[in-house]
Amino acid sequence: VIVDNRPGAGTMIGTDNVAKSAADGYSVVVASFAHAVNPSLQPRLPYGSNAAFAPVLLIGRGPNVLVVRANSPYKSVADVIAAARAKPDTLTYASQGNGTSAHLAGEMLANLAKVRLVHVPYKGAGPALTDLLGGQVDMMFATAAAASNFVDTGKLRALGVTSQAPSAAFKGVPTIASTVPGYQVESWYGLYVPAGTPQPVIDRLNAAGRKALRAPEFVRKIEQEGLAVSGGPPAELSTYVQAEEARWAPIVKENGIQPE
């Protein structure tokens, strides 16, 4: 396996490369949250639509976590909502860029809790966390991988996880949904190949992927990312991502979210 990292344009550079590759099973893209959001966020997709891909495997799903500095006055999600209602357009939250899970997690909280927050996008999670730790922003809906070390060392306080159920990666941290009913945001990873790839080839890739997901070393690494392994048939990924597209499209539209 050759890993060819092609970042940029909200993941579209890498996905477009795979979409336009031969449909023979030798070109596979690891898709994530952006894959389900880009159809409603981007004015034009270079590959047309997500119909340019065939699903192979949903690798795993996991929450983001709402974090504040250790010395923050906010001790709970309820505290954040109360402060946002008292002073609209004052509380700031960082993200690793427009349209990312950290960004839309804040937009969903604002929509459901009927508050107004100020989004501050950065070029990556590193700079966002640096400014959060430095006091330039109030909070962040960070990925588990980005925030866990800072939470473990006491530099950040975790207020709530974005999944519907509590996360093993953040024991004792409540769900945001326990304060804001209906709230749910997940990070996820899945494998796609170009549309037109023969089904026997897809089935073979799915079987190989499911075997890899059971490897103890892989399980340890993915749990460190706060993810729960999925590993079902190709249809599992297709159904999940179609539901994610439908869920995020109105959030993007209602909030006038634009790509960077």
UniProtKB/TrEMBL annotation:
Domain of life: Bacteria
Entries under InterPro entries matching the protein: BUG, Bug_dom1
Family that this chain belongs to: Belongs to the UPF0065 (bug) family.
Protein name, UniProt field: LacI family transcriptional regulator
Organism encoding this protein: Variovorax paradoxus
